[in-house]
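Reminder to self: C-alpha cells first, then the designed residues, so the page reads top to bottom the way the pipeline ran.
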C-alpha cells in the first residue's frame, strides 16, 4: 500500500471520492428499503440514551438494573400520558380556535395595511402596499388550506404509528438492558485507535447536545408560556409550547418567534410588537446566559455547517434526521480534528472527556 502514499493528493482523492460516493449511494438505498425499521431502532437508541441517566441514578440505591429500567419506563410513560391528558385538550381547542380566527385576522391585517397606505398617501410617501396586501392574503389563504389538508392526512399515519410506538418502547427496554454489549460489538469493528477516540467523543457530543437542548426547550417553553399569558396574547399556551418545542432544534426559537409575531401582528400591529419584544428578550436570556452553561462541552459547528447538516439530515432521515443531524455532524468534525493531533495529545483529550463528572454518568448504551 506504499504506492498510495506516493500518489499526488489530487489523484488520491480522485480515486477515493467515486468509491465513497458509491458506498454512500448503496447505504442510502439500504436505508430507504428498511426506513421504517431503522427509524424505530434509531428512536429507541436515542430514548435509551436519555433514559439511562435516571436508570443509573436508581441503580445507585442498589436496585437491580432490570427493575430500575421498568420503573423509569413506567415513570416516563406516566409523565407523558399525564401531560397528554392535561395539555392535549386545551392545545387542540386553541389550535382549532386559531384556525377559525385566522380569516378575521387576515381581514384585520389587510385593514391595517390599508390604513398605513392611506397615511402614506396623505404624506405623499412613495409607498404602495395594495399589491402586497392582495398577494399576502392569497398566499396565506393557500397555506392555511394546505395545512388543513396535511393535518387530515396525518390521521391515518397517527393511527398506524401505535404499533411502531409499542415496538419502540419494547426495543428501548432491551437496549437499556443489553445496550452496552451491543455497542461494544459495533465499536470493535473500528480500528483500536478510532475506537478509543470515537466512543467517548460521540458520547460527550450526544449527551451535551440532547440534554442541553431539552433543558433549554423546557425553560424556553415555560418562560414563553408565562410571558404570553401575562401580556394577554391570544392562544398563549399554544404559542408558548410551540416555541418550546421549536427550541429543541437549531434556529427553531427565532423561526417560531417570527411566525408567532407575524400572526399576532395580523390581529394588531402593537400586539405583534409586544410579542416580538418580550419573546426576543427571553430568547436572548436563555440562549446567551443559560444555554452556554448547559452545552459547554459541545463541539461547536459553524452556523453554515449546522444548516447544511440539518438539510442533509432532513433529506436522508426526515424528522429523525433533523433531530440527530447536529450531534452527528459535530461528532464527525471532532473525530477528524482529533485524528490530526499527535497520539499523546489525542490520548490526553480522550482522558479528559472520560474523566469529566458528566461523563461519569454517561450512558452505557451510547
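Designed residues (366 positions):
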Amino acid at each position: 500500500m506504499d504506492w498510495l502514499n506516493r500518489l499526488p493528493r489530487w489523484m488520491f482523492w480522485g480515486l477515493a471520492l467515486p468509491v465513497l460516493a458509491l458506498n454512500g449511494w448503496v447505504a442510502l438505498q439500504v436505508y430507504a428499503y428498511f426506513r421504517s425499521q431503522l427509524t424505530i431502532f434509531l428512536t429507541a437508541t436515542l430514548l435509551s440514551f436519555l433514559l439511562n441517566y435516571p436508570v443509573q441514578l436508581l441503580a445507585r440505591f442498589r436496585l437491580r438494573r432490570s427493575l430500575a429500567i421498568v420503573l423509569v419506563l413506567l415513570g416516563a410513560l406516566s409523565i407523558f400520558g399525564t401531560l397528554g391528558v392535561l395539555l392535549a385538550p386545551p392545545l387542540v381547542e386553541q389550535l382549532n380556535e386559531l384556525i377559525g380566527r385566522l380569516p378575521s385576522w387576515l381581514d384585520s391585517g389587510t385593514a391595517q395595511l390599508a390604513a398605513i397606505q392611506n397615511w402614506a398617501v396623505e404624506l405623499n410617501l412613495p409607498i404602495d402596499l395594495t399589491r402586497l396586501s392582495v398577494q399576502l392574503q392569497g398566499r396565506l389563504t393557500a397555506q392555511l388550506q394546505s395545512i388543513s389538508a396535511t393535518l387530515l392526512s396525518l390521521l391515518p399515519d397517527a393511527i398506524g404509528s401505535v404499533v411502531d410506538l409499542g415496538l419502540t418502547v419494547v426495543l428501548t427496554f432491551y437496549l437499556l438492558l443489553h445496550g452496552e454489549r451491543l455497542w461494544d460489538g459495533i465499536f470493535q469493528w473500528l480500528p483500536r485507535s478510532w475506537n478509543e477516540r470515537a466512543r467517548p467523543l460521540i458520547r460527550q457530543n450526544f449527551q451535551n447536545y440532547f440534554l442541553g437542548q431539552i433543558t433549554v426547550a423546557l425553560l424556553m417553553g415555560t418562560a414563553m408560556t408565562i410571558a404570553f399569558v401575562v401580556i394577554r396574547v391570544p392562544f398563549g399556551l399554544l404559542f408558548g409550547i410551540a416555541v418550546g418545542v421549536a427550541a429543541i432544534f437549531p434556529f427553531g426559537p427565532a423561526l417560531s418567534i417570527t411566525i408567532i409575531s407575524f400572526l399576532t401582528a395580523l390581529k394588531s400591529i402593537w400586539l405583534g410588537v409586544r410579542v416580538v419584544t418580550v419573546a426576543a428578550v427571553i430568547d436572548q436570556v436563555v440562549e446567551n446566559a443559560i444555554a452556554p452553561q448547559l452545552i459547554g462541552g459541545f463541539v461547536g459547528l459553524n452556523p453554515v455547517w449546522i444548516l447544511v447538516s440539518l438539510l442533509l439530515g432532513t433529506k436522508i432521515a426526515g424528522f429523525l434526521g433533523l433531530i440527530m443531524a447536529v450531534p452527528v455532524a459535530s461528532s464527525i468534525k471532532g473525530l477528524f480534528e482529533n485524528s490530526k493531533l499527535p497520539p499523546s495529545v489525542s490520548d490526553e483529550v480522550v482522558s479528559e472527556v472520560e474523566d469529566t463528572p458528566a461523563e461519569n454518568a454517561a450512558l452505557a448504551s451510547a
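The CA atoms of residues 94 and 100 lie 10 Å apart.
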